[in-house]
Structures are given as structure tokens and as C-alpha cells.
Design brief:
Strand content: 5-15%
Helix content: 25-40%
Distance between the termini: 43 Å
Low-confidence stretches: 250-290
Mean pLDDT: 86
Shape: globular
Length: 290
């Protein structure tokens, strides 16, 4: 039997990994698959980096892979380094390509084009860089010093449909944040992560500096009644972009956990495999803003 394929999340900030995809990462790890997370901002010698390491240990997603750029709104997050949005874009893409070729994932998860509900500039920049990096990673003549070419078969954009922000939207509005949800028919996959909800919440609260503050989403969620918080975190939503199979893999098969073509790398009984949009549950994912 084929082993479940590797999964790589590329996110902007420490805690995005748990908020956007903590359930999927925990589920994928539980199936015996390799998971990894690239974080674009904050320096490795900061408190946020230590919290990220704790979160990844809870999720089983390996050691931190930090690009070390400065947070858009916290320049002291990486002294002497440019803010992510100010860094040479080609360098950011190259950095992500290096990790894709090292991890060799079938699927990459990142932010949607809005940068999730709050539209954070770092989220949008991470989205752009990741899409270009996925396209470049399979081309031998691009960034030849970053490792052997590897082409992921799909990118899953973590997103929030209009129908799933009933609890989360007002919470963000009260904190003077944007609510940039997407039409329901743009959501390809919904993932019920309730079996992994305790682990996901533990990973979120590992980001202690964010739980202690008023405006970041971990802090907002920590002050909610548990049932409301669970409704927000129990389902993760994705828009799927498909790429060609990587070299040396059979055409027409994603080789993911022995599943048929078009099925996602983490099997879910209620996943749609026809390419039609799925009905959306009454829950949204979550987002943060430093």
C-alpha cells in the first residue's frame, strides 16, 4: 500500500499554521504522513519562534522552517532583515522553492488571494510567492542551486466561504478587522476536523504571546465560550488548484494514500471527488492579525 503523501504548509506568521490548517496537519500526521510548515516571518531567536516550535510539536509537523523576514507591522520581529512585503520578491520565491524541493510534498497549503478574512499584507504576499514557487519548483533551470526539481500536484488555498462566518465575522468586526470571505461555490473542499480539535486548539494556545493579547485571533478565540469557539475551528475550507504530476510519477495518478485520481492527499469520507463544489458547513476557520 502506498504511504500517505507529504504535505507542506507555507504561511506568513507563527500561529497561522494552527489557525488555517491545524486540523488537516494533525490528521495527516496521524495517518503516518510527513508534514512540514514554512513560516515566512519572524526571526528564529524570538519568542514567537519558540511558540511555533511548540505548536509544530503538538501537530507533529516537524521543526520550524523560518524564512526570517520581518512582520509587516512588527519590524523588530527580525532585526536587520527586510519586511516580507519589502524583500526582493524573487528571493522570497527562491526561499520557498528550496523548502518545496527539500520536503517534496504532493500538496501545498497556503493563504488564499485575499490573505484570509483580514487581508493581512503578509498573507497576500505569502500567497503570491507560494503559487510562483510551486510552479517553479518542478523546473530544473529555475533556482538550480535549491535542490532537485519537484512538482507538487496541488495547492490548497485556505479560505472562508460567505456562509461560514456567522460566528467568526462579528468577532473580527468588533476588533476592527476585515471580513473578506469568498463565494461558497469557490470552495472545493471542506474538512471536518472535530476529531483533531483538541490538538488544533492546543497548537493555537501554544502561541502564548498571542493568546495574552486582545486583538490577535488566538486571544479573541480564548475569550469565547467553548461551543462558539469549536464551531469556528471545527471545519477547514480550501480552494484547490491542480498542477501536473511530478517527473517519474505515472501520469493521471497523484499517488496519495493509494487513492484514485482527483482525490485529495488526506482522505475524508465526505470529500467530493467529482470536481463539483461541496456544500459548506456552518463553521469557519480562523485568522490572525499581529
Amino acid at each position: 500500500m502506498l504511504q500517505p503523501s507529504a504535505l507542506l504548509a507555507v504561511v506568513a506568521h507563527p500561529d497561522d499554521e494552527a489557525l488555517l490548517a491545524g486540523g488537516v496537519l494533525a490528521r495527516h500526521t496521524a495517518r503516518g504522513a510527513r508534514t512540514a510548515v514554512v513560516t515566512a516571518t519572524w526571526a528564529p531567536d524570538t519568542q514567537r519562534a519558540a511558540e511555533l516550535a511548540d505548536s509544530l510539536e503538538i501537530l507533529g509537523a516537524g521543526q520550524p522552517r523560518m524564512l526570517g523576514y520581518a512582520d509587516h507591522r512588527v519590524p523588530e520581529s527580525a532585526p536587520g532583515r527586510p519586511r516580507l512585503c519589502d524583500a526582493p520578491f524573487d528571493q522570497v520565491v527562491e526561499d520557498v522553492v528550496r523548502h518545496i524541493r527539500a520536503v517534496r510534498p504532493e500538496t501545498v497549503i497556503t493563504h488564499d488571494a485575499y490573505g484570509q478574512l483580514t487581508g493581512h499584507p503578509d498573507h497576500r504576499q505569502t500567497h503570491r510567492a507560494t503559487l510562483l514557487a510551486v510552479a517553479a519548483a518542478g523546473l530544473a533551470h529555475l533556482y538550480p542551486d535549491t535542490g532537485e526539481p519537484w512538482q507538487p500536484t496541488a495547492v490548497h488555498l485556505a479560505t472562508h466561504p460567505h456562509s461560514a462566518v456567522a460566528d467568526l465575522g462579528p468577532l473580527l468586526t468588533r476588533a476592527a478587522k476585515s471580513v473578506l470571505s469568498v463565494p461558497d461555490d469557490t470552495v472545493d473542499l471542506t474538512v471536518d476536523v472535530r476529531p483533531w480539535l483538541d490538538r488544533k486548539w492546543a497548537a493555537i494556545t501554544a502561541h502564548r504571546s498571542q493568546v495574552e493579547r486582545d486583538r490577535p485571533l488566538p486571544g479573541l478565540l480564548s475569550r469565547l465560550p467553548r461551543d462558539a469557539r469549536d464551531r469556528i475551528l471545527a471545519t477547514e475550507y480550501y480552494t484547490r488548484l491542480t498542477f501536473r504530476p511530478a517527473p517519474n510519477r505515472p501520469t493521471g495518478s497523484v499517488q496519495s494514500a493509494g487513492l484514485a485520481e482527483r482525490q485529495p492527499p488526506w482522505p475524508e469520507p465526505d470529500f467530493d471527488t467529482t470536481g463539483e463544489p461541496l456544500p459548506v458547513r456552518d463553521a469557519g476557520d480562523s485568522q490572525r492579525d499581529p
